[in-house]
Structures are given as structure tokens and as C-alpha cells.
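FAQ: What does the model actually see?

It sees only this:
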Amino acid sequence: MSTLNLPLPHAGAMHEPLPTPASRAIHTSTPAIELQRIVAASTRKRGVPRVVRRATGPVLLVSLWYALSAGGWLPAEVLAGPQTVLSSAAALWASGELPDAIAISLQRALLGLAIGGSIGIVLAVLSGLTRLGEDLIDSVLQMLRTVPNVALIPLLIIWFGIGEEPKVALIALATAFPLYLNVYAGIRNVDQALVEAGRTLNLSPAAMVLHVVLPGALPNALVGLRYALAVSWLALVFGEQINATAGVGYLMSTAREMFQTDVIVVCLVVYALLGLVVDFVVRALERLLLAWRPAFSGA
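And it is asked to produce this:
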């Protein structure tokens, strides 16, 4: 019987797979991968600037107002035109009446907000931190906040007279409840995991409140501040109707008696601009104090 003497393969070649045509193509035709820089969607340019988009609505509204006034569809007895309102505002500013009225109204609003806001925050902290405080405070404030502030004007006049005190008291009552509700909700909605972490670190009760509870309630507190500022202007309008002798509300009351719709519109615009300025200040505080807290800014 004859045997075939075939050459044995090398020992190291037993573990090396033979190259196939497909593998040769892969190694010879693989293109170089190009790296691309990833840009965050929030930093991409969106065409029209946001300032222009935000100003579009007011510009269109004023344009419509001017068109209706110039075309005769909106008589001056009903509502003065934009050009008349601007001339009246310039005259009031030149005479000094408007700056003095703005300063007095702003002082009343800020003083009432400081008093009412302080009371609301203190009561919210006492009610939010302890169950005893909640049982003693929360039910009373929930009843009082349903009472219309305008209905309290006769009592405020009897208690404080017809000077500055009832006006400031009315603003304080109006602003205390929004801050109380939001600060109380912020304290009760603090993440329980953060509280447990503070207890694990053996924080004292004061340190727990200062470093865990109050920072966690800060977003709600700022929301309450924005709402309280808006309410303060509404209360200011009613408060300045109580035998006022100065302020934006006094100018409005005088213009109403003389059927000066242009001055009334000037006062309304002043109220709106003051509210917009203080809201801008609070939004700036939010960006400063809540820089650590990422939030959705809109799509």
C-alpha cells in the first residue's frame, strides 16, 4: 500500500485563519473616519433674534391702535391715539408730575411688599418646618386668603384712617398670601433624599434648614415673589383710590373726572412698565441664584 507524503503545516499556522477576498477588501478599502464637532442645540442660531420676536406683539398692537385712531374708527372720546398719549406723557414728565407720581407709587408698592412678604415668608417657614406650626397657622391663612382684599378697604380706613397706612396695609395683605403659599409648598416639596443625606452628615437643625431646606425651596419662593409683585400693582390701583393726593392712581382719578383718556392711558402704561421692570429684576435674580439648577428654557 502506498502512502502520500504531504507536508505538515507549521505549528503556528494552525491558529491563523486564511485571508478571504472579503477580508482583503475590508482592509484595503476602509475609508478614514472624519471627526465632526457636536454643537449643542441650544447654541445653534435660529435666524430671527429673540428680542425682535418678543417685540413683534407690542409693535403690532400699537400699529393697529394707530391705524384705528388715524382712520377715525376709534374716536378720541373713547380712546386717545398714540400720538396724543405720547404728547401728554411728555408734558406730564416735563412738568414733573409724572416722575413724582411714579416715585410715590413705587415707594408704596415696595413698602407694602416688604411688610407683607416678610410676614408671609416667616409664617410659611413656621408652618412648613413643623406640624404644630401647620396646625396653628395654615388653616387660618387658608380662610383669610379667600376674603377679597377690596372688601377690607372699609375696615382699613376705620383702623388706619385715610393716610398712607391703609394703602400700604392693603398691598401688604395682597402680597403676603402668594409668598406664603409658594414658600410653604417649596419647603414641603424638598427632596427627601437630601434631608436624609443631611441627617446622615449629622447636620444640626439650623444647618439643615439653612443648607438643605431653604435652598430647595428657593425656586418656589422666587415664583411667589414674581406673583406677589404682580398682585402688588393691582392692590396699588385700589389703594390709591382711598383719598389719594399723589401717585399714579391720583393722576388717573383726576383724569377720569375730566374725561382725559390720554392721561388715563399714560397711567396704565406706567403701571405696565413698572411691573415689567420689577419682573425683569426678579428674573435676573432667578438666573443669579438658581445658576446651579438646570432648567428647560423652551424649544
